[in-house]
Design a protein that fits this description.
Blueprint lengths: L6 E4 L10 E4 L7 H4 L2 H7 L4 E4 L18 H12 L7 E5 L1 H12 L7 E5 L8 H10 L1 H12 L7 H8 L6 H8 L7 H9 L13 E6 L7 H10 L5 E3 L12 H15 L5
Parallel strand pairs: 2-3, 2-4, 4-5, 5-6, 6-7
Antiparallel strand pairs: 1-3
Length: 271
Amino acid sequence: MPSQLEVFYREGHKGDTVPPLLFVHGAYCGGWVWETYFTPWLAERGWDCHALSLEGHGESEGHVWLSALGVDDFVRNLKATIDTLPRPPVLIGHSMGGLVIQRYLEMYPNCPPAGVVMLASVPPNGISQSAVRMLQTAPDLLAALNVFQASDRYHPSLNQTRALLFSADLPDALLVEWAARFQAESLRAIFELSMLGFFHAKPPVALPALVLGGADDQIISSQDVIATAELFNVSAEVMPNMAHLMMLDTGWERVVNRIDDWLNQVFSASL
């Protein structure tokens, strides 16, 4: 366990009347992805927000041994962060972070969160079908992603990054800013995400869940979003004109508004 995990914190005004929110980022980035829009917006509306950078990501320790880290290591990072909070949080996970949350629910069934929000989450059967789909529909993007995975000296072109992660109308200046902050990912974690289809996912304990995806997502398809929703026994919500990196994409306000609406609906009795 690293001695230092980066956790961003923004205080809301609702206090202990509602659960705190704990955000878990996806591959190739860190907790910073939540800090531009989501955590300031939700904190302003009263929610205590914590955004974790998993081991080897952002300013957390572990970059030297990143390739040796697996999903369960990231789950232990999540558990260590949850243990610092005064109450069980609502876990909000994007892409790989959604799978980390799914695995947390398997590893720690006696420590359930208050609820979960899945954003373009890796589905219970992993990313192998996504890779096959991209090979058929966008082989150049799949190739660019794999080369970036092999060496952090190579970054996909800005056009490839836009097509892979964002909507076509994202301003160039923002695209350059976000692309410069992406980092290499754990080879072991990516391998594990690819192998999940060989294992049967255990249904989590019943808990409030919101599952969102983007209709224009090149990585996580609508069927993947539905598979995740079925795991939690809820209906999938696939948002039009939304790409993979939902918290930084144009139209991010629609996503965070939906999360806020759901939080207020589920936890209104506590308000």
